[in-house]
């Protein structure tokens, strides 16, 4: 009996990018479609980046057809759109392991494949990396090509724009592909524009321009300058695309072109990759390409849950996330206080701000992928009487450390940082884990830090922060919590802890997510106390002093690096007080944590309930076997 025909006959022939060269150009669109179908099957399990990967597939096929990876360096900004790249570079069989423990990263990763030029997860880094590689190539006398793919969203980042400025100034040979998935090709991109675009990518045309300029300069420099100005004026008249910010920066601009026409892309790329100097190819793509329901709603299908590939049907989550809890609280708070103003760096959906942005559109600002701008804009608002709340992921606040310190903290401005995804985030891995904020924020004078245990405490901390001077940071994890009724605003005194379970033999101090583990670990254990250490700065010094004097030992637990975090704060205080109570510090080890489930990473790090019980037993607590 004959085996059934493969659904991916062309993709089955590709083990490495070099195998692409055996295909005809006419076969490339069919290969791209097979890749898209495979991506849909892989992503249907949920939790993966679907829409962006579908949108970039044709472009990736064309790039690998023209470039010679890994010799040529192909960089992807953020990296979440590179699933087709992974499949074409020998990782197709491993795709079901994406973002799972021991499996493939959801982004490009240097240690994963020689075809991954950079390790990435944050936006706007590709151009500076590409510049560095081009400089290294030229300094070492090598001749590989450098191509960077960056989205229109990532291009809003200051780091990308600053790198682009330097790229134009240095004139290094490289290709930048601007993957624009929001703009459409306008009507005025007609035959004349295509003719001019085709002319400007011809190598003989570029060489001819250079040779002609040198020849005229040899006769008369003023004449050469006059001809250069006349040429620019003529090009601007016939080619409106040449009048753009990229050209002003000294970067050749080509486009916009259809990012789903693989054969046209190949034709252009073959002519662009070897041109001298930096070139931007502007391609227009559609997120979710080839999947009707993803094209219709690319925001939801950016990273959907489990779905039926044939119909797009999915089961909507009924869970109430910490992001939802924050969004509901700040939306209600803004109704009560006309000075409340929310800022986000391109994370409206992720930070739970969709409802807020609709309810309070005049008190909402999305600055794009520009975390530094978000923080300094908040400082400006605070200086003029508003009460800004910066809604930001922990991992992205790292990018604005100087602005928190320099622009907010020095003048003790009333800016509240609502820090989402604090702690281990799981499948997104090392680039996205928020395990450093306690440490770097503790180092800034005047910043007060809270770790709510539930939605009610989150609301209490948020209201307190909005009505007190100075900067506040409220960190909460990825995951779910229990909703509370509207109007719930518990009165909290910042810097006070709460005894959850009395006990004076060994006391476990924990806040936020870690408190869940601590209470579970200590349940039923005689003499073991648990304290909701919900404020890390300042500590509840009065309670900590008393605990250190009466308890035989203390255990601190935190979903943060052990270096400079909550445990360090406790040790610093005890040292200053001359108290010598033994302290065991549990937290995330001083090493980057790879992608896995949150529970798995916490177990590996030794901060979950079983790990805490093990430490309690080591400290002499009678821990029944099997408890």
Strand content: 5-15%
Termini separation: 57 Å
Number of strands: 17
Helix amount: 25-40%
Runs in which pLDDT lies below 50 for 5 or more consecutive residues are 183-197, 233-238
Mean pLDDT: 88
Compute the gyration radius: what is it? 28 Å
Most strands sheet? 7 strands, mixed
Strand order of the largest sheet: 7-6-8-9-11-10-15
* Class inferred from helices and paired strands: alpha/beta
Task: Figure out the total of helices.
Answer: 23
Give the overall silhouette.
Answer: globular
Q: Which secondary structure elements does this structure contain, and how are they paired or packed?
A:
Blueprint lengths: L27 H16 L7 H16 L6 E4 L6 H9 L34 H14 L6 E6 L6 H13 L3 E7 L10 H10 L2 H17 L1 H18 L6 H4 L3 E7 L3 H11 L5 E7 L7 H5 L25 H15 L3 E5 L9 H6 L4 E3 L4 H13 L3 E7 H4 L3 H9 L6 E5 L16 H6 L5 E3 L4 H12 L5 E4 L22 E4 L4 E5 L2 H10 L5 E5 L2 E3 L3 H10 L2 E9 L4 H12 L5 E6 L9 H8 L3 H10 L9
Parallel strand pairs: 1-2, 2-3, 3-5, 4-5, 6-7, 6-8, 8-9, 9-11, 10-11, 13-14, 13-16, 16-17
Antiparallel strand pairs: 10-15, 12-14
Helix pairs in contact: 1-2, 2-3, 2-10, 4-5, 7-8, 12-18, 14-16, 19-23, 20-21
Description:
The protein has 627 residues and is of the alpha/beta class. It has 23 helices and 17 strands. It has helices at 28-43, 51-66, 83-91, 126-139, 158-170, 191-200, 203-219, 221-238, 245-248, 262-272, 292-296, 322-336, 354-359, 371-383, 394-397, 401-409, 437-442, 455-466, 513-522, 541-550, 566-577, 598-605, 609-618, and strands at 73-76, 146-151, 174-180, 252-258, 278-284, 340-344, 364-366, 387-393, 416-420, 448-450, 472-475, 498-501, 506-510, 528-532, 535-537, 553-561, 583-588. The protein has a 7-stranded mixed β-sheet with strand order 7-6-8-9-11-10-15, sandwiched between helices. A 5-stranded parallel β-sheet has the order 1-2-3-5-4, with helices on both faces. Helix 10 links the parallel strand 4 and strand 5. Helix 2 packs across helix 10 (262-272), helix 7 (203-219) packs antiparallel against helix 8 (221-238) and helix 19 crosses helix 23 (609-618). The termini are far apart. Residues 183-197 and 233-238 have low confidence and may be disordered.
């Amino acid at each position: 009996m004959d085996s059934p025909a493969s659904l991916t006959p062309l993709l089955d022939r590709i083990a490495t990018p070099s195998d692409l060269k055996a295909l005809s150009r006419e076969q490339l669109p069919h290969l791209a479609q097979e890749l898209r179908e495979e991506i849909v099957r892989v992503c249907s399990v949920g939790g993966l980046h679907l829409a962006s990967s579908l949108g970039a597939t044709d472009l990736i096929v064309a790039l690998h057809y023209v470039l010679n990876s890994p010799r040529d360096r192909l960089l992807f900004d953020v990296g979440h759109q590179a699933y087709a790249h992974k499949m074409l570079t020998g990782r197709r069989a491993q795709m079901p392991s994406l973002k799972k423990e021991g499996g493939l990263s959801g982004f490009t990763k240097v240690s994963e494949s020689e075809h991954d030029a950079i390790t990435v997860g944050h936006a706007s880094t590709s151009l500076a990396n590409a510049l560095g590689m081009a400089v290294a190539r030229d300094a070492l006398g090598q001749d590989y090509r450098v191509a960077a793919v960056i989205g229109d969203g990532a291009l809003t980042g200051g780091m990308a724009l600053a790198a682009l400025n330097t790229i134009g100034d240095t004139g290094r040979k490289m290709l930048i592909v601007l993957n624009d998935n929001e703009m459409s090709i306008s009507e005025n991109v007609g035959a004349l524009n295509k003719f001019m675009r085709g002319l400007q990518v011809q190598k003989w045309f570029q060489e001819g321009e250079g040779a002609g300029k040198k020849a005229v300069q040899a006769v008369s420099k003023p004449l050469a300058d006059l001809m250069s100005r006349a040429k620019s004026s003529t090009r601007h008249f016939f080619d409106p695309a040449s009048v753009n910010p990229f050209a002003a920066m000294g970067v050749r601009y080509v486009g916009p072109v259809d990012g789903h026409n693989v054969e046209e892309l190949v034709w252009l790329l073959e002519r662009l990759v070897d041109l001298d100097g930096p070139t931007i190819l502007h391609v227009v793509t559609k997120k979710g390409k080839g999947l009707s329901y993803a094209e219709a709603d690319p925001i939801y299908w950016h990273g959907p849950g489990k779905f039926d590939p044939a119909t797009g049907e999915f089961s909507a989550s009924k869970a109430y996330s910490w992001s939802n809890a924050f969004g509901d609280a700040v939306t209600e708070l803004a109704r009560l206080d006309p000075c409340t103003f929310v800022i986000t760096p391109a994370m409206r959906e992720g930070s739970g701000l969709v409802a807020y942005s609709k309810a309070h559109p005049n008190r909402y600002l999305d600055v794009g992928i520009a975390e530094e701008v978000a923080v300094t804009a908040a400082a400006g608002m605070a200086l003029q009487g508003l009460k800004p709340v910066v809604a930001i992921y922990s991992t992205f606040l790292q990018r604005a450390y100087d602005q928190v310190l320099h622009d907010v903290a020095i003048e003790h401005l009333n800016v509240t940082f609502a820090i989402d995804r604090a702690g281990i985030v799981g499948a997104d891995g090392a680039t996205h884990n928020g395990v450093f904020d306690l440490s770097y924020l503790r180092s800034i004078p005047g910043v007060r830090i809270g770790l709510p245990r539930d939605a009610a405490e989150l609301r209490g901390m948020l209201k307190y922060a909005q009505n007190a001077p100075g900067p506040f940071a409220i960190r909460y994890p990825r995951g779910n919590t229990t909703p509370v009724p509207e109007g719930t605003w518990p009165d909290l005194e910042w810097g006070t802890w709460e005894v959850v379970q009395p006990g004076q033999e060994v006391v476990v101090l924990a806040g936020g997510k870690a408190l869940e583990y601590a209470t579970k670990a200590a349940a039923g254990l005689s003499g073991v106390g648990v304290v909701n250490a919900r404020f890390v700065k300042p500590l509840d010094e009065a309670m900590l002093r008393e605990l250190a004097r009466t308890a035989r030992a203390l255990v601190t637990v935190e979903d943060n690096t052990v270096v400079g975090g909550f445990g360090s704060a406790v040790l610093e205080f005890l040292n200053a007080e001359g108290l010598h109570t033994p302290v065991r510090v549990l937290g995330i080890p001083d090493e980057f944590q790879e992608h896995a489930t949150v529970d798995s990473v916490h177990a590996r790090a030794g901060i979950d309930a079983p790990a805490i019980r093990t430490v309690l037993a080591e400290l002499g607590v009678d821990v029944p076997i099997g408890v």
